[in-house]
Amino acid sequence: MRIFDTLRARKAVLEPEVPGHIRLYVCGPTVYDNAHLGHARAYVVYDVLVRHLRSTGLKVTYVRNVTDIDDKIVKRALENKEDPTTLAARFYRAYEEDMTRLGNIKPDQEPKVSEHLSDIIALISRLIDNGSAYVAAGDVYFHVPSCAAYGKLSHRKQEDNIAGASGRLEDSEAQRKRHPADFALWKGASPSEPNWSSPWGPGRPGWHIECSAMSMKHLGESFDLHGGGLDLVFPHHENEIAQSECATGKTFSRYWMHNGFVQVNKEKMSKSLGNFFTARETFRLVEPEAIRYSLLTTHYRAPYNLEWESAGDSVIFPQFEIAEGRLEYFYRALERFHSIPPGRISKTGPAAPAALTDLSKELNAALDDDLDTPKALAHTSDFLHALNDLCDRAHAKGGSIPEPWVIAARAGIAALASVLGLGADDPAAFLSRVRDRRALSRGIDPAHVAAQITARAEARKAKDFAQSDAIRDELLRRGVEILDTPGGTSWRLGVGAS
Question: What does the alpha-carbon distance between residue 444 and residue 449 come to, in Å, rounded to a whole number?
Answer without folding.
Answer: 8
